[in-house]
Design a protein that fits this description.
- The complex is a heterodimer of chains A (457) and B (386).
- By secondary structure, chain A is mainly alpha-helical.
- Chain A has a single domain, classed as Formate dehydrogenase/DMSO reductase domain (Formate dehydrogenase/DMSO reductase fold, Up-down Bundle).
- In chain A, α3 packs across α8, α4 crosses α5 and α10 packs across α11.
- By secondary structure, chain B is an alpha+beta fold.
- Chain B has two domains: 173 residues, no CATH class; 103 residues, Cytochrome c-like domain (Cytochrome Bc1 Complex, Chain D, domain 2), CATH 1.10.760.10.
- Chain B contains twelve helices and four strands; from the N terminus they run βαβααααβαβαααααα.
- In chain B, α3 runs antiparallel to α4 and α10 packs across α11.
- The chains are: A mainly alpha (457), B alpha+beta (386).
- The interface between A and B is large, with 75 and 72 residues.
Chain lengths: 457, 386
């Protein structure tokens, strides 16, 4: 197989016309879901139900049902939180950073990745709240003049997190919706069903593809991308502050912010690839989400995987170089202590296996990339597990050392979060255009003026 | 013609044609015209001679507002309203305030940009625009490019506009009219019923959540706990009481036996060990107001809200009360008398003596002599007389 890398591959393959693109993307919305769809939905729905039951029991009897106990007070709920927030980062990266970098190939995957961001942040948001044990009191996390005359502690990273994650969710949702407005208008004008037309009209707000509007729209999109870019970097930076601002060996590390952001993009891209390989096949979107796009994403996975690997090494180097005994003990214990199995799962999944992406053949092979991205998903979950649990389980007093084991309920809730995520993804594929119709049309062949041979202004 | 003309709409097939059409229309001097395309066409704003979007000003103003709100809120709460030292940081810890300032800046700027664009720049929602549901709109929504010249334009002249459009060689020209009759879908029965249903549902759910759900397990603020509360029944003990009495013969710390317990009028009572100093009298006043005044009144006249009951709370200014020794008043407080219960458990020994001293002050004040006035005049430098 020969590929000419000196020429940029077209963003839309197969020389599709504008109406063909629209037809392809809108078809899942016009057809009735088939049997496979319901099978997939019932599987994810069952997982969601399992998680909901485990949560309900946990609330009723208390969070003593979980494995968290001294000395490991932060465990799987926090691991899950960081994992899901990380997954979310790919969407904003694709929709905002690649937009600012003028990467045309982002158009085919941006909508889906943004949707996954929103769903992943929903999953993430559950965990810190349930970790408090009484989530119905979460209102106290917000600064409002209450009858106790108490304010929240604005100097605490945990509060920064409240602001970062809620801002991130809001901005992602707004960004997503702004992108959907022209598509809602297109769907409104092509549908024949009266109910659908009413719904699309409401959400399109009466958009009429006016160039006077497009001008402000593009400006707004640019501004939002400009804000979302530092925002996405800030969110995982602040998540890493939850650990790094403490003074615990293993957590108190200045490399955490860039390391967490790289890891977030790494895991997010892996999750996007995991889902897209199915979506492009099931919905016949191979010409819009092309193999070239997947290859580019695999390159990002390779690059961020190496950054994460560098961070793993640098943590050990700094532990040795600092000369702090406690710090050195934590890292030796991490790699060779009771949780060595978790550590080496993390290293092999995140650093070793992605090296296969150096080879073009593997980057462009669907089965190989699917296996690798699944391993990356597993590895990134274990990375957060290793950081959280191994730094805590052997604290400063050997008599209080312990070995943390998640319980059935911990794992049930984790599976439930996957159920929630995939249920939302599956519902999304049938209710909204999974690819931005207007953006893909704009990068299709012949969609932009030739300026009659004149130079491009 | 009873129909109201909105404008002429021409359709084109390629982006090059629409750029050309936009240029020609702008050159002809039309103001109220618009180009419609399924996606933003590069260079169209230049061809239409549009001014740059001013949307960024909204972003700037609201972004700065977000920063200011965040900083002022954190300054006021952490430095003014409830200053507290946390982690050795100063009350105004600017580095620690950076993350939230940034987040609020982004949040406000984004929301303001989007809401401002939709409402102020677009005047949306606008689902009753005459272009909606036209053949023209269906085409530009999919894969055509359109030009509309509005009848409202100052230069609008049917023949001239037709000439201009024809010279651009469009696929088709359509006349767009305002709807003949204005409709108000908001007033339709279906929509009103929908609103009423939503209102009922919302209030029902809110009522249930606030009045029922919050009092159910496990949302009860941990009110129900498997532990023994005072005043609560317990199956653990044979007598069924949750509250336990100390073992018989237990002596509390600091306990001193009082030899006259249960005697009505002991002939021989304790002597007052406390001098009526200023501090002692202040303590006495405070305790008197807390424990004695509810029955005996603020000044010992027996004029509290219990007056009129049987037996009336007695005045402390009767001859009998004035002639009590200090020890006798102390005994009554400690032991109780008639319907007055013992206050030994609520008021400490020192406080009881302080109350006795204070009662003496009240009694003296109610029965002042003219010689007392001279003392007061001398001490305060005033010249009051009767």
């Amino acid at each position: 197989m020969h590929i000419d890398y000196s020429q940029e591959a077209p963003a839309v393959a197969g020389r599709l016309t504008l109406s063909q693109i629209e037809e392809l993307v809108a078809r899942p919305l016009d057809t009735k879901p088939d049997r496979k769809y319901f099978i997939a939905l019932s599987i994810s729905g069952s997982l969601l139900l399992l998680g909901a039951i485990c949560l309900g029991i946990s609330f009723y009897y208390g969070i003593g049902l979980w494995g968290n106990n001294q000395p490991v007070g932060w465990a799987v709920p926090i691991v899950n939180f960081v994992f899901w927030v990380g997954i979310g980062h790919a969407g904003t990266l694709i929709s905002a950073i690649l937009f600012l970098l003028r990467q045309k190939w982002r158009t085919g995957i941006a909508r889906f990745a943004e949707a996954m961001t929103i769903f992943a942040v929903i999953c993430a948001g559950i965990f810190p709240v349930i970790h408090t044990g009484r989530p119905w009191l979460a209102g106290y996390l917000l600064p409002y003049p209450n009858q106790h005359s108490l304010w929240v502690n604005f100097t605490s990273p945990l509060l920064w997190d409240v602001f970062a994650v809620s801002t991130y969710f809001t901005v992602s949702l707004v960004f997503w919706y702004i992108g959907l407005i022209p598509d809602f208008a297109t769907l409104r004008d092509r549908t024949t069903s009266k109910v659908k037309k009413t719904i699309y009209s409401i959400f399109s707000l009466g958009w009429r593809h006016s160039s006077r509007h497009w001008q402000h729209y593009e400006k707004a999109y640019m501004l939002l991308a400009g804000f979302a870019t530092p925002l996405v970097l800030s969110v995982h930076t602040i998540v890493s502050f939850d650990f790094a601002v403490s003074i615990l060996p293993g957590w108190h590390t200045t490399i955490f912010p860039p390391y967490f952001v790289a890891g977030a993009i790494f895991s997010g891209f892996a999750m996007v690839v995991t889902v897209l390989v199915f979506v492009r096949k099931i919905f016949n979107l191979e010409n819009i989400i092309t193999l070239d796009h997947l290859e580019k994403m695999n390159k990002v996975i390779l690059a961020t995987g190496m950054m994460v690997g560098y961070a793993y090494g640098m943590e050990f180097f700094i532990a040795w170089y600092s000369g702090v005994q406690a710090e050195q003990f934590v890292f030796i214990n991490r790699a060779f202590g009771p949780y060595a199995w978790a550590y080496w799962i993390m290293v092999s999944c995140n650093v070793i296996f992605p090296q296969l992406f150096w080879f073009r053949k593997f980057r462009r092979s669907i089965p190989v990339m699917f296996v690798i991205v699944i391993l990356v998903n597993v590895g990134m979950w274990f990375e957060r597990f290793v950081i959280t649990v191994t730094s805590l389980h052997r604290d400063f007093l050997p008599s209080s050392w312990g070995y943390y084991k998640p319980t059935f309920f911990d794992m049930g809730i984790l599976l439930g979060s996957f159920g929630l995520f995939f249920t939302l993804v599956i519902l999304f594929t049938k209710s909204l255009p999974v690819v931005s119709i207007s953006e893909v049309k704009a990068v299709a062949d012949g969609a932009q003026p030739t300026h009659r041979g004149g130079h491009h202004e | 013609m009873n129909k109201n003309l909105y404008g002429f709409a021409a359709l084109f097939k390629t982006p090059d044609e629409i750029i050309e059409a936009a240029k020609k229309t702008a050159e002809a001097g039309y103001q109220k015209y618009d180009i419609h395309s399924p996606y933003p066409v590069h260079g169209i704003d230049r061809a239409m001679k549009l001014k740059a979007s001013k949307l960024g000003f909204i972003t700037l103003v609201f972004g700065l507002t977000g920063s200011a709100i965040a900083l002022l809120l954190m300054y006021w709460t952490m430095s003014v309203d409830y200053p507290m030292i946390i982690g050795g940081k100063p009350f105004f810890a600017l580095p620690a305030f950076v993350p939230i300032t940034f987040e609020l800046t982004v949040l406000l700027a984004t929301l303001a940009t989007v809401i401002g664009m939709i409402t102020f720049f677009f005047r949306f929602p606008e689902n009753d625009h005459p272009l909606h549901d036209t053949e023209y709109m269906k085409k530009v929504s999919c894969d055509h490019y359109g030009l509309v010249i509005e009848a409202k334009d100052k230069l609008f002249n049917e023949t001239k506009v037709r000439e201009l459009l024809n010279s651009l060689r469009p696929l088709s020209i359509e006349e767009i009219y305002y709807p003949e009759k204005e409709t108000y879908p908001v007033l339709e029965t279906k929509f009103v019923t929908f609103l009423i249903l939503i209102a009922l549902l919302t209030s029902g759910v809110t009522y249930f959540a606030l009045n029922k759900l919050l009092y159910m397990q496990p949302f009860t603020w941990m009110m129900d706990q498997p532990k023994l509360n005072p005043q609560k029944q317990s199956t653990l003990f044979a007598d069924g009481y949750g509250m336990r009495a100390p073992v018989k013969g237990t002596v509390a710390r600091g306990f001193l036996p009082y030899p006259f317990t249960g005697q009505n009028a002991p002939t021989d009572v304790l002597l007052n060990p406390y001098l009526p100093t200023k501090e002692n009298l202040q303590l006495g006043e405070q305790k008197y107001l807390t424990f004695c005044s509810p029955c005996h009144g603020n000044f010992g006249d027996g004029d509290s809200r219990l007056r009129g009951q049987f037996p009336n709370p007695p005045s402390l200014h009767s001859t009998r009360a004035r002639e009590f020794s200090d020890g006798m008043i102390y005994h009554i407080i400690t032991n109780g008398q008639n319907v007055m219960p013992s206050y030994a458990s609520q008021i400490t020994r020192e406080e009881r003596w302080a109350i006795v001293n204070y009662i003496r002050v009240l009694q003296r004040a109610k029965n002042a002599k003219s010689s007392d006035l001279q003392v007061v005049n001398k001490e305060t430098g005033t010249n009051a007389s009767n």
